[in-house]
Design brief:
single chain; alpha+beta; 7-stranded antiparallel sheet; 6-stranded antiparallel sheet; 7 helices; 36% helix
Length: 256
């Protein structure tokens, strides 16, 4: 589209990072501290941008197109036409284009542009750090301390997968909720989580609920709104996943 303002921020992609462009966009906006998210929503409202939560949205912005290497986000407004696009390759590139459709738009964007120029680079750097060192830090703690302790608690929900290399049972403490014959959970690191990789290789799993084991078939649901899904799951675990995770992914287990 023709634009009156264009900015591009480009950073190196961390080694081993597997996040899609949409997952990067979510890490930048949805993983931002709550006060910043609230501040952004107020600013967008001042520009007349209509953002609302729901599937197929990133912090209220509509996902116009999404491929592993590219995502385009838009939010309607009577004042401006605004587009954010994220492209992922060896580097991560965030491009914002703005077209002024009404007279007040230019003055309003003059106030917003300096904030935008600070927020996007900062959030991209934060997302990059949490995508590499943060993941190693959290998973090391879980593997060595958290999981061994939680697995011994009688009321802890456990997900048993089959090791994709070893073929041996692997048990992981998880949080989630049973709804009828379905068990729902959200992985904080998406397909980087070992148990997710295991169930992708072999979807036959077992889930321990209230001390009883149930067989089932696991399904990875990348199109499900994981942030919205967390709101329907146990609050304490959801808070931990939301705080520690940077690549949320919904998993559903169909119980037998």
């Amino acid at each position: 589209m023709t634009s009156d303002y264009t900015s591009t921020v480009d950073i190196a992609r961390p080694a081993g990072d597997e996040r899609t462009a949409e997952q990067w966009a979510r890490a930048v906006w949805e993983d931002a501290p709550a006060p910043l998210r609230a501040f952004l929503r107020v600013g967008w409202r001042c520009l007349g941008l209509q953002t609302q939560p729901g599937p197929g949205r990133v912090l209220g912005w509509t996902v116009v197109s999404s491929e592993p290497g590219s995502v385009v986000l838009e939010a309607p407004s009577a004042l401006v036409t605004t587009r954010n696009s994220v492209d992922v390759g060896s580097r991560v590139r965030w491009t914002t284009t703005v077209r002024f459709d009404r007279a007040p738009a230019r003055a309003l964007w003059a106030l917003a542009a300096p904030i935008h120029a600070v927020v996007i680079p900062w959030r991209l750097r934060e997302a990059a750090q949490r995508g590499s060192g943060w993941h190693r830090l959290v998973t090391t703690f879980q593997r060595r301390v958290g999981n061994p302790v939680l697995s011994r608690l009688p009321g802890q929900v456990l997900l048993e997968t089959t090791g994709r290399t070893s073929g041996l049972p692997r048990r992981t403490p998880v949080g989630g909720r049973r709804t009828g014959d379905e068990f729902w959970l959200v992985s904080e690191f998406g397909t980087r989580s070992q148990y997710v990789r295991n169930l992708q290789a072999d979807p036959r799993v077992r889930v321990r609920l209230r001390g009883r084991w149930h067989r089932g078939t696991a399904h990875v649901l990348p199109d499900d709104d994981a942030v919205a899904r967390l709101k329907s799951l146990p609050r304490l675990n959801s808070a931990g996943v939301r705080t520690l995770g940077n690549n949320l992914l919904t998993v559903r287990v169909d119980l037998e």
